[in-house]
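We were asked to recover a plausible sequence for a given structure. The inputs and outputs are reproduced exactly as logged, with field labels preserved.

PROBLEM: sequence recovery
POSITIONS: 268
GIVEN STRUCTURE:
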């Protein structure tokens, strides 16, 4: 069900939590004990919710408050503290990495959260994640978003633009508990469901269109190296997006039915 190639994460073994913690809406606290199969299960610490449960509010006495006001561009709190937690044992970096994804003003680019901000967001949501794994999780988070943007650019190139303006990301929304129609359909036939979903709103030439991104875990190609599959495509919100999807599907089927002959080396 995935239209894009697998993406092997460059950092060592580490699987991100199911759903981006930086913009997932808070819900009521679920049952306290996760099943043993939960990948982030740490029995000696505060229980971690199973993958199918929403992240909940943390009840610890954190000294890293976060304002409740949400930034409507990315559905993240407007100000995520860089202060360490009271019981934190490792100093996490507070530097933020600049992405390659342009903002609407075209003079700046989106910034990724620092490892300390990422950890504070996890703690605020109730995730007890080992501190030594936070930097790897942030690296994977950033890597996947960069790969997603590259896929968006491929679609935009196929779509074309008369004004030759470069696309930019207007806003985004994390929807980890909302199955996309495509993911839902494939799940009916036994395919795994994505561990996260984003909706990205991309602007270009005075227009704005929505892209759906499903994030899947893929089988490891090497021991200890996580592999992910991204299914990035324009949402079927307008006729142009429908045409692009149909064109891409037809091209993919053509390549399957009529694979191109390998080019012969003239020097052979």
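RECOVERED SEQUENCE:
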């Amino acid at each position: 069900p995935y239209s894009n190639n697998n993406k092997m994460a460059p950092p060592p073994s580490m699987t991100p939590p199911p759903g981006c913690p930086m913009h997932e809406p808070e819900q009521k606290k679920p049952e306290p004990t996760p099943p043993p199969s939960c990948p982030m299960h740490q029995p000696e610490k505060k229980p971690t919710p199973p993958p199918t449960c929403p992240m909940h509010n943390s009840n610890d006495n954190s000294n890293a408050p976060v304002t409740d006001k949400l930034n409507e561009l990315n559905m993240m709190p407007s100000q995520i503290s860089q202060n360490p937690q009271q019981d934190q044992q490792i100093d996490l970096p507070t530097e933020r990495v600049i992405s390659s994804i342009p903002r609407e003003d075209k003079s700046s680019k989106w910034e990724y959260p620092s490892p300390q901000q990422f950890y504070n967001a996890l703690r605020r949501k109730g995730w007890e994640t080992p501190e030594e794994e936070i930097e790897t999780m942030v690296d994977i988070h950033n890597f996947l978003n960069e790969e997603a943007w590259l896929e968006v650019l491929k679609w935009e190139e196929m779509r074309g633009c008369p004004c030759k303006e470069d696309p930019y990301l207007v806003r985004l929304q994390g929807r980890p508990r909302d199955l996309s129609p495509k993911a839902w359909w494939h799940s009916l036939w036994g395919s795994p469901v994505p561990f996260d979903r984003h909706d990205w709103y991309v602007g270009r030439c005075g227009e704005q269109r929505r892209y759906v991104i499903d994030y899947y875990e893929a089988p490891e190609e090497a021991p200890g190296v996580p592999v992910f599959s991204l299914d990035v495509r324009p949402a079927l919100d307008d006729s142009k997006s429908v045409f692009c999807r149909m064109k891409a599907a037809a091209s993919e089927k053509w390549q399957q039915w009529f694979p191109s002959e390998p080019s012969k080396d003239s020097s052979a």
